Amino acid sequence: MNKRVLQFGRLLDQSRTVSFSFNGKKLVGHPGDTLASALLANDQHLVGRSFKYHRPRGIVAAGPEEPNALFGLNRGARFEPNQLGTTTELFEGLEACSQNHWPSLECDFGEVNSLLSRFLPAGFYYKTFIHPRAFWKHVYEPLIRRSAGLGRPPSEPDSDTYEYLYLFIDILVIGGGIAGLQAAKSAAQAGARVLVIEQSPHWGGRTVVDATTAADTIGDLSAEQYVNQILNELRNMPNVALRNRTMGAAVYDHGYVLAYERCTDHDPVAAGPRHRLWRIRAAQVICATGAIERPMTFAGNDIPGVMLASAVRDYLVNYAVMVGHHTVVMTNNDDAYVTAILLKKAGAASVRVLDTRAQHESDLKTATEALSIPVSHGRAIARVMGRKRVKSVKICDVSGTGGIIEEIPADIVAMSGGWSPTLHLWSHCGGKAEWDFRQAMLRPKADCPPVGADGRGFVRCAGAANGELDLQDCLNQATETGSRAASDIGLNVAEVEVPVAPRRSETAIQPVWQLPAHADHDLQAKSWIDFQNDVKVTDIQLAVREGFESVEHTKRYTTLGMATDQGKLSNINGLAVLSGSLNQSIDATGTTTFRPPYTPISMGAIAGEARANLFQPVRCTPMHQWHQDHGAVWEPVGQWRRPFTYQQKNESVDEAVVREIKNTRENLGLLDASTLGKLIVKGPDAARFLDMLYTNMMSSLPVGRCRYGLMCSENGFLMDDGVVVRLSEDSFLCHTTTGGADHVHRHMEEWLQTEWWDWQVYVANITEQYAQIGVVGPNARKVLQKLGGMTLAADELPFMAWQDGELGGFRARVYRISFSGELSYEIAVPAGQGLSLWSTLIEAGEEFGIMPYGTEALHVMRAEKGFIMIGDETDGTVTPQDLNLNWAISKKKKDYIGKRAQQRDYMVHADRWRLVGLESLDGSVLPEGAYMVEDGRNALGQENMIGRVTSTYYSPTLGKGIAMGLVRHGPDRMGDVLLVADLEGGHRKARIVNPIFYDREHTKQNV
Amino acid sequence: MSDSVAPLGTETFVGIAEIKPLGLQGLIAVRGDLQTQFLGDAIKQVMNIAIPGVRGVVFTGNDGVGWISPDELLLFCDHEKVAARVDELRELLGDRHTLVLTVSDERVIFSVSGVRSREVMAKLCPVDFSPTEFTSGMIRRTRMAQIAATIWLSKHDTFEIIVMRSVAQYAFDLLRVAASEGSEVDLW
Fold it and tell me: How far is it, in rounded angstroms, from Cα A786 to Cα A666?
């Protein structure tokens, strides 16, 4: 059935059509439609099932406050659940499906919950935790898990792209209605850089819809003409930018605002990002976010066809949709009369107004009655009849208990319980609200705004968001708000002319929160407060009876306002019912906290560009591509990728590691060591500084020599290690671990900047300036000598020395250091020459059996030598003394970072676990991280633990498993056999041995 | 002697802006108190450029001096001239407490050019790139998505960006995504 009314539809192009589908059914709409308006035009009111009771639910609103019209949109890689029909623009080929029903929307099995509703009251979920105890695990949880949740998650990766945009602006105006445009104009006229954002595709907000009569003018213009005029003025100002389809999502400290732009949702075939998240720094924020109409609370107010009065006229005026032909308007204020007038003008078969207020006179009422629309005063809806659609309305006296006076047929109930200013953005960062008794609304408390670092407010509300419901008040206040914001950022504000709008005579709203006023329990149990989370009046009353009197507790106990709509329609009604139950005024009850985002924003927008290859930066060494081309199996080390091993054809990863180790021990290995941190420390106080940073003495290191050093945190625990090189009297090069470079750099800067700010030391991180290549193995010297240049004879460049020179045409620095126990050189050249040197070495080394090796071979070889590895043997609770590294701890130095902590009694306790070597009795490899246990059990019933395995490998050199571990009294127990618990619950036997398994005299590295 | 090679080739990307890796650039990091006469004199003598003010950068031909922090400068010159410049500076500065380092090879430079270049940059960096606020002669150290970056305008609609060498590919991919077709912001 086509419900379009030809003379309306200001946002619609009725000359063209758009095809879409709902639950597989082909439907037609027009360009300019929202999904909701197109469904209503097709007389599809039922759009989903409620969360808890699976009750049939229809479209209630026309904007982002909509609680029910949530859909799964599109399919496959573009499927997205929980999309609001009221803010989804229709496009050709749109596919929508309803949610939370089984097997179908029309016939839902879960509706049985509704019959059981007296057993599923507020807090039932929490009560299921308690008793009977066993029921939670076996009955409640499986049931609740199956029925909970609305939309289904997508099953494919999102095929769209998303991005951020950082923007700095003087004044951000959120909301492109009449107030926002007016405020923007006055701010811009003062010279401020202004950005106006509007969540919908259209400017002008409600004013255009609500200006029903020829008398509703602004200046000499109609509302629509005035909006177009001010838009043109703003567009012509170079300091103003206007952005529609962009929602103010969140306001944070320091004027930081998130705005959510939906770039291509309305045109999915267009190129470019789907959403753009604007990260805005605004000196001043103006919230011109309008107001949201409140539902009224009566039995059956959730039946499809019960809608907000404003939404009924939005669909008519904007989208030419007559949502029904027999409408009952239920109101406690003048505003809903506008709906009655418009419906009548559009040719509705019947319109009837029920006004809770006693007989009164106002301009809108006069206009209504002039159209022969019957108005009944002091009346209320007792109950709406119908299941999947309103069928009739039972009418009662507003002050009674619900005695039926008459029943009239109807297909639409247009309700208006008054307007609530949209305070969300004002409140996100701490703006306070106060109850306005005259207008029955929570409005911003102007003297308690969100404040910036200077203690001054940076957010203002303009127009209806500030509670200005009268058009002239709105224009005046918005104009002044724009000027004040400009003035606050130091601009000279000129007088801005405010156009004149006619004032209507008006009768005040009557705050009634339950219809009828003394509704019995049966009616209250069918009076919905929160449509999406199925919270009824009786649920709030129950919460109060059970002692949940604080508004925050009631919210959580009943789940009021906790659904995806965050209670945009339900919060004030809920507060009012709670206050009524507590016999206190609404301002005494207070409100819950508004939290960002205003409406849900896509996960894609939050991630921005950070996905797939851009999820995190991957750091590559200059030889990265060579590794990739030669079978590298990658290992992430911090953000670096390092070759774990180089896998050859017909070889497993384990076999590759064994081959690399054997080859390095017997012939020649090549290691890309470029990732190791390289920090330059220079200055008159550099030596003194390093004496404090390392546990051992660095000031005594001669120029031309290298020394292994340990670095501890102030708590005495080992933090990093590496070879320190003395470059000159006043400059050092400190090598750090791969993952430690940035951290150690920061550590050094912190001590220099906060403690020893008067020491003359500069630190620079030059990790990436150099490619560093380890040339390792018995043939290392031969290949380097073959390259020519530096002679590198054993006596000229002894172990732990370094030299600058020329090597095979490269200007290089050669360090004779070893982490493998073999004859070993590390050669540093500028990063841009790294690949060239690497290739030269590979070629020159062929006759010496050269092969690259990866991090696993490096790990195994260092373990064979008993060298510790930061992160394996240490975990932030291990001291150098625990690792028997006392030789690297200076006794002569008065102080170093960590020294004092290491003298505490716990740190020198004899029971501390200390490093030993471990060998399984059967030669197998012990499990990683396994605990050593002894007889007896601890207080938790676990086996008593006396140590743990820190490193464990198969050693191809020794042909058996080797390990290191920390064991209580370990070094005193050489030769003892311990039990090592494995993951299967059994035990293996391992003997405590010297942790140096290979070349205990260190002769091989020193040839 | 062997020559350095930049990590990315000469591949350029054209979307709503042109993204181009610029190849080798000589870079020298200088630490020292920028207020001291001797440092100003040494920089002037070697670069023929006075030390710029806060967040300033000055270029004369291929030579440039950028303000990085109250005690740090970044010097620009031809890659092959770096070694001589470093030697000369160290010589002039003598025993004074300063640090002069070659950093050419640890960094890479990209250019982002075209009328949309400001938009591309504003998608990645928390910096005010509006034409009135980010102008020629300014240099900013900031964050570009998840990496550090140094940014200045080399021409009125061409940005140059320095990032660390190891993340060259990430930076290139990042800039390409930010400049992809159809992603115009239409802001400036």
Answer: 19
